[in-house]
């Protein structure tokens, strides 16, 4: 199922286009209910999240942007909220960042599910699996493989997923590798909901610390992450955030010059 049919299934047709990427504007509870319904009806749907960082990548990588066009995209973080406010006059109804939203969705799903974990290091994936099993005792969590595999191992991993056929497959390989991997290898034979989850397994394992709650509530988790991992993340945030906002302003100005062009 692609973005457009998933939207139809949700009965919601509220999309905001941010730098060419269509993002579903949906409340937290409605998003949980939508994903639960897609699983119950076994409607294959690829899911990812848009934040300033991967919007920047998609802006310069047409292969990634094209792959995202076939995903159901949920809004993640303050950057896309600012963009929505600039472009549409209102932010997204809720911040559905995957680190909080995916565990909440699994907790809320009463029906027992099989959930596959693919990515991160083996140690972090195992620790995340234990954490998730304690959070959502009704589900079965299976670590399929870490994220460090060779091309020669790939087919065996895909076969293992097909044999297990989990309801939900959490793919944690970082952007854009995880979305491109899902796009190239995963279809309805393998699972129902493949979800690109970024650093979720690292966070759940406790290896990478989360920002304190007050910082998350102030939408400053990006600042905490920058302080914790400046060497890895300075380009993403210090360069990337202003660049993202500049591109959004350009989108707004080009739309104003060409009203017939819509919100592309």
UniProtKB/TrEMBL annotation:
Record flagged with keyword rRNA-binding: no
Signal peptide: none
InterPro entries in UniProt: WecG_TagA_CpsF
Pfam family, one: Glyco_tran_WecG
Keywords: Glycosyltransferase, Transferase
Highest rank taxon of the organism: Bacteria
Name this protein carries in UniProt: WecB/TagA/CpsF family glycosyltransferase
Species assigned in the record: Mesorhizobium shangrilense
């Amino acid at each position: 199922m692609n973005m457009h049919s998933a939207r139809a299934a949700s009965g919601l047709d509220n999309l905001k286009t941010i730098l060419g990427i269509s993002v579903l504007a949906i409340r937290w509870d409605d998003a949980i209910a939508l994903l639960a319904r897609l699983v119950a009806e076994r409607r294959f749907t690829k899911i990812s999240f848009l934040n300033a960082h991967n919007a920047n990548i998609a802006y310069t990588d047409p292969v990634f942007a094209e792959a995202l066009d076939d995903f159901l995209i949920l809004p993640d973080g303050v950057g896309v909220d600012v963009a929505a406010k600039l472009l549409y006059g209102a932010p997204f109804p809720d911040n559905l960042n995957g680190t909080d939203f995916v565990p909440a969705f699994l907790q809320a799903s009463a029906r027992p599910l099989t959930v596959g974990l693919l990515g991160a290091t083996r140690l972090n994936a195992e620790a995340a699996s234990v954490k998730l099993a304690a959070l959502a005792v009704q589900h079965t969590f299976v670590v399929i493989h870490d994220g460090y595999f060779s091309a020669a191992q790939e087919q065996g991993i895909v076969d293992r997923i097909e044999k297990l056929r989990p309801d939900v497959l959490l793919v944690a390989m970082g952007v854009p590798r995880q979305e491109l991997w899902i796009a190239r290898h995963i279809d309805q034979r393998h699972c129902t909901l493949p979800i690109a989850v970024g650093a979720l397994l690292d966070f759940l394992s406790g290896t990478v610390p989360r920002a304190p709650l007050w910082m998350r509530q102030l939408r400053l988790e990006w600042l905490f992450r920058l302080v914790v991992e400046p060497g890895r993340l300075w380009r993403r945030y210090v360069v990337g955030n202003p660049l993202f906002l500049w591109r959004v302003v350009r989108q707004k100005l080009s739309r104003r010059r060409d009203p017939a062009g819509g919100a592309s």
